[in-house]
Amino acid sequence: DKVAIWLTNRPEWLHILFAVAKIGAVLVPINTRFRTKDVEYVLRQSDTHMLITTDHSGPIGYLDMVRQVIPELDTCTTPQTLGSAAFPALRRVIVLSEPWYAGTLRWADVIAAGQAVSPAQRRARQHAVDPDATALIMYTSGTTGFPKGVMQSHSMLRIVTDQANRLAVRPTDVILMYLPLFHCFGLYEGPLMSIITGA
């Protein structure tokens, strides 16, 4: 399953990153500067099954743009009945927000539902993950056309480990990462480098 994440940097971004990788699904980070046309393209081209976003961040109404792209959200009676002709693979939209919005699941409710999954089920899912399988589909900026999806396997950790060794990153180091997590520099040299080295 492809899980698209359209969020600015925040702790939940990292929780989602590691959870999706741990169960063997594929994370599809979406550039937070994208607008409706670009998001529509990424969701369709990646065959996204689940979109995780927020209602707004500062003046940007992310959920408003999602509703423009997926108008079926407004007529969806429960989050489990989402059916979109434009996005046949899309099954759920999860929103990190306090209020509940039609056709969506709240992040807090998803976390609560996760408590029903047994540790044995989680372990079995984790042990079934193929290290050579795709872990990320990262879209380019689309500077010269539509964004292009670049598939990264779990072996990206080898690349980050090699970079950490070449840079001599140690557990006592502090990494100041201000770049967005949807970008490979922000993701690789930030949280992945930190997890691998203990920095």
Note down, in words, how this protein is organized.
With 199 residues, the protein is an alpha/beta fold. It has 7 helices and 7 strands. The strands form 2 sheets. It has a 5-stranded parallel beta sheet with strand order 2-1-3-4-5. A two-stranded antiparallel ribbon has the order 6-7. Helix 1 links the parallel strand 1 and strand 2. It is globular.
Chain-wise SSE layout:
Blueprint: E1 2-6, H1 11-23, E2 26-29, H2 36-45, E3 50-54, H3 62-69, E4 92-96, E5 105-106, H4 107-114, H5 119-127, E6 134-139, E7 149-153, H6 156-167, H7 184-197
Parallel strand pairs: 1-2, 1-3, 3-4, 4-5
Antiparallel strand pairs: 6-7
Helix pairs in contact: 2-3, 6-7
Q: Helix fraction?
A: 25-40%
**Succession of helices and strands:** EHEHEHEEHHEEHH
Main sheet strand line-up: 2-1-3-4-5
Care to count the β-strands?
Answer: 7
Q: Report the span from N to C terminus.
A: 31 Å
Strand content: 15-25%
Mean pLDDT: 92
Uncertain stretches: none
Structural class: alpha/beta
Radius of gyration: 17 Å
